Amino acid sequence: MSKTLHIVGGGMAGSEAAWQAANAGLDVVIHEMRPKVETFAHHTGKLAEMVCSNSFRSDDSEQNAVGLLHWEMRQADSLIMAAADKHRLPAGGALAVDREPFSQHVTDTLRALPNVTVVDEEITDLPGEGHWLFTTGPLTSPALGEAIARETGADRLAFFDAIAPIVYAESIDMDVVWAQSRYDKGETEEERKAYLNCPMTKDQYEAFIDALLAADKTEFHEGETAGYFDGCLPIEIMAERGRETLRHGPMKPVGLTNAHKPDEKAYAVVQLRRDNALGTLFNMVGFQTKMKYGAQTEVFKMIPGLENASFARLGGIHRNTFMNSPTLLDEQMRLRTRPNVRFAGQVTGVEGYVESAAMGLLAARFAIAELAGASLPPVPNTTAMGALVTHITGGAEAKTFQPMNVNFGLFPPVDLKGGRKNRPARYKAYTDRAKDDWRNWLTGSAVETA
């Protein structure tokens, strides 16, 4: 049996899968269509390019499901997590990374491996022979998307993902804006001041909402529907759901004290998170948008402290494709109708950088075992990895299947009473159980390919 694994797509999932497979002794061929075939969201041909936020979200492995996923990936020798840790930026309790050196690190590491080959080509069909893992993500090319639809007999599902703007630090008015993480979260002074905060009065907030609702928006093409993923809603959609929605979401003023006016409570706050190690770029947190470019500059300059803002990147909106995985994939992430083909990453209906990489890690380990003539025990659904793979391979309701971030709602319940007041203890019980079960699974799932 050939011990070559072909991976289509060099994003988070594909890069992590390649690392896992190569370290297990497989020959790996990464088929990446960039830079020959471009997408509107990518800017380079590097592997693991970050096209949206630069945040891997919470790094708390005791109280947060995505933090737990970080921990599980580190235990499994994850390349994505190693690169993120090496190039992390201050972000309070979150794991934010310097995106350019991060992707360069992943690219250099994989290209340096003697058993990894990167081929710049577009794959437009599902091969009938060999061992293949498709990790093409939400920006799967139209030709490949059509091939998947032909094979599965299912219409592609779509939602719209919006990109947040990035501001040049030198254009931010620091006489108005102050540095502080919410609730002063973080172990170091740098962490406790990882965010910049732009305060708004009630009148300023109301005027901002009026302008936001009236601004010119990107129009959808014929046949497209606005099935947004709730974890990445454009700010206009949130504002349309109620004038106070933003003030209770990304613009909530809680846990912050204005360093310039400590006795004055802001009605709303726009937060900016550092986007690179130099501190020259800041991401507008939660400000995904589908406003047209001209409208964005006008509306965002209404924010106190950003009146003279210059933007390194404005927001954008794009269509994301994902599969109805519960009906199409088996428990080992193989396509039921073509078991030599696996899928992983966002195209399977997980949402987020870390979740995508995690599914790439698992899919690679399934492939490694198969090529060695072995089979892995089921991944415990008490772990973050297991909860995610269970969700996309049968745990979710197929009729209402939508992209999902990892969360404790996907885990089997723990037997603790007390409601909301006992939440910290309940979350700790989830993570303690998961860590034990993940360690045991890793120990019992080791296979040799040689």
From TrEMBL:
GO MF annotations, alphabetized: flavin adenine dinucleotide binding; tRNA (uracil(54)-C5)-methyltransferase activity, 5,10-methylenetetrahydrofolate-dependent
Reaction catalysis annotation: uridine(54) in tRNA + (6R)-5,10-methylene-5,6,7,8-tetrahydrofolate + NADH + H(+) = 5-methyluridine(54) in tRNA + (6S)-5,6,7,8-tetrahydrofolate + NAD(+); uridine(54) in tRNA + (6R)-5,10-methylene-5,6,7,8-tetrahydrofolate + NADPH + H(+) = 5-methyluridine(54) in tRNA + (6S)-5,6,7,8-tetrahydrofolate + NADP(+)
SUPFAM superfamilies to which the protein is assigned, alphabetical: FAD/NAD(P)-binding domain
Listed Pfam families: GIDA
GO cellular component, one term: cytosol
GO BP, one annotated term: tRNA wobble uridine modification
Gene3D superfamilies recorded: FAD/NAD(P)-binding domain
Keyword flag Methyltransferase: yes
Domain MnmG N-terminal: start-end pairs: 5-373
Swiss-Prot/TrEMBL keywords: Cytoplasm, FAD, Flavoprotein, Methyltransferase, NAD, NADP, Transferase, tRNA processing
UniProt-listed Enzyme Commission number(s): 2.1.1.74
InterPro entries: FAD/NAD-bd_sf, MnmG-rel, MnmG-rel_CS, MnmG_N, TrmFO
Subcellular location: Cytoplasm
Record carries keyword Methyltransferase: yes
Sequence intervals crossing the membrane: none
Chief subcellular location: cytoplasm
Family, as annotated: Belongs to the MnmG family. TrmFO subfamily.
Entry-linked PANTHER family: GLUCOSE INHIBITED DIVISION PROTEIN A, METHYLENETETRAHYDROFOLATE--TRNA-(URACIL-5-)-METHYLTRANSFERASE TRMFO
Protein name per UniProt: Methylenetetrahydrofolate--tRNA-(uracil-5-)-methyltransferase TrmFO
Natural source organism: Maritimibacter alkaliphilus HTCC2654
Phylogenetic placement of the source organism: Bacteria, Pseudomonadati, Pseudomonadota, Alphaproteobacteria, Rhodobacterales
